[in-house]
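seq:
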Amino acid sequence: MNSDKMRKLNIGDEHYLNRELSWLAFNQRVLDESRRDRTPLLERVKFVTIFYSNLDEFFMVRVAGKKRALKEGIRQVDEPDITSVEQTLEVIHNKARELVSELYATFQRSLLPHLAQGNIHLHRIHTLSDTQRSALYQYYKHSVLPVLTPLAVDPAHPFPFLGNRKLYLLVSFQTPTTSHPSSGAHPEAIAFVEVPGVLSRLIPVNMEAPGHNYVLLEDLISEHLGELFFGLPMKAAFPIRVTRNLDINLLESEVVDLLSSIQSEVKAREQAEAVRLEYAADLPRVLLDLLEKKLGLEDVDTYECQGPLALADFSALYELNGEGWKYPAFNPRLPQRMKGNRSIFSLIREADLMLHHPYDSFYAIIELLHEAAWDPDVLAIKQTLYRTSGDSPIIDALILAAEQGKQVTAVVELKARFDENNNIVWARRMERAGVHVVYGFIGLKTHSKMTLIVRRENRRLARYVHLSTGNYNSTTARHYVDIGYITAKPEFGDDVTLLFNILTGFNIMGRTGSDLQPMPSPMKVLIIAPLYMRDRLLQLIDREIAEQLAGGKGRIIAKMNALVDRRLIDKLYEASNAGVEICLIVRSICCLRPGVEGLSENIRVHSVVGRFLEHSRVFYFRHKGKDEVYLGSADWMPRNMDRRIEVIFPVEDPVAKKQIIEEILPIYWADTENTWQLRPDGTYHREKTEGEAVDCHQKFIEIAREQGIKSLPYDKAIRHDLKHKGRPIVGNRSNTNASKQKDTKKN
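struct:
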């Protein structure tokens, strides 16, 4: 194909898929997992709760952002087939309403019947025996009633603030209010009762027959509301739930202290405007009108629910155990190279180490930090932290290292959405222990995942680097697919050292145009955003185009969470037009339209949704048969390229590169059990395939079992007491009383 034909490529808005609809389509794929015959019973429950939580976040961020744009006078949008923010919201609500209907149809017609087959039942109180109702009343009287607070609405009690994602009962009474009609007050007496989030939503019921039996907490409260409202004859009680804007929007020019600004914003958003109302199907129209008026919502913002609200609470059922109710247990393995009682530093000096989580245990990273904390020759540890678990062994290891007198620096991203409070809490805990805590930049999120360990060896300083596609979170590492890479190569150490100096120094990363003269990247191997990443990715794609036009074979495989950036999409269209073969594995949002003749007929897009959440970012470029592979923290979205500090890095170790090219990527592309294919019209379909079924997640588990070494149960391993120098039993590594084999690279 010649370059003249490429220059005729005309890309219009119709060649992109709508971002919001693409995300909603992803969440629909999540919901579909709850209906599949192959999905175990309680995993079905989990997928329903994930769908529900995802939709909450979508409204709190994306819908809230659109509403804020309208409030600020922004009307126009750059979306295919959409000309205004109002139209965008209409499209979103139409699709979201369709999904909510699908959710409750799934809950009523699929999930509840399957739970019943497993002897897990949800009962209505009026169907129970007198004995059972009496026992429930005793529970209500002693454990529920003292926690409840009735909130009346009358001239003396204004309409209460309804908290974000909290479940309430709206109670109506037969007694009219005393307000004059001209006041605009509701003609009936009403009140609210918050369903306490501190209590279990699912209340066990004792039955003679075996099984697990529950009633809903709101049903139990409704049954005994008379004890809260003395002398007032009630008409009915209706569950409702409000979703509010939880997005933080800091203006850089107004921020003096980032920590206090984040704390203020987190506090302020508790009172943020409502963006959605969910209500029970039997709520009278007159009460719905009242709620809309008081909350500042319109009909389009309200969602009728044909079943219990706040379905995410049903995740409590996952604590039950039954044969075949969950995915078969899998305990992560450690790489064979970690067998024995050697220092992890000596292993890394021999060759880079790649870890494919959750199949390879995240405990390897904890052990790296544990050894670094106790090693007298380790002088400094630096780490970026975006999201981490509550009782994090990562935080414990950094604190231990600081207590051992090491120079420890943590770059904490305070703006990690919905984790702001958690990050502030453990950042202060680290500060009290002597860790140097840096809060990043105001206008940029530090999203890169990296650790630098500086160690004294043979009268010089060696640097060990860990880079990853995922967070330092021992909890999500059980369920998220990520790839980590540990190396002692000097060029990696140089680049990561430089980047940490930038992160803890002055912000040059977000300065562009007249503020900062264009300059070549100072990095030797790392590709960093926001200054260089998009341009470098465009160059890598251009190189495949040039190879294809020169008569060679260009090929690109890219795995990521989301593909939104139009400049990168346009370049992929250009590459397809040149004949480059492009395979994309995009879990969530994909705005690229594949398979369009004359535009993208050489692009195929798969989405993998299954047991584990796909989170790794992997980029392969054939490069004349030299096969370059990159890993990193960045998706191909404008926010990652322009508003975040991101890192993409090359995989240089030949063993690791071979594993990605010949094992990991081919298994993903061959998957038949978790894969959806994106069609040109923007719809996703499971394609029927002939031959052997391939489940990529199960295949990776089998590989880990065959090639890895056994370790302690994961939960026990990561909670090993770091105060002890010895390690827990991990495969054939040391026991709790043994110390590691001395590293030969000592002073």
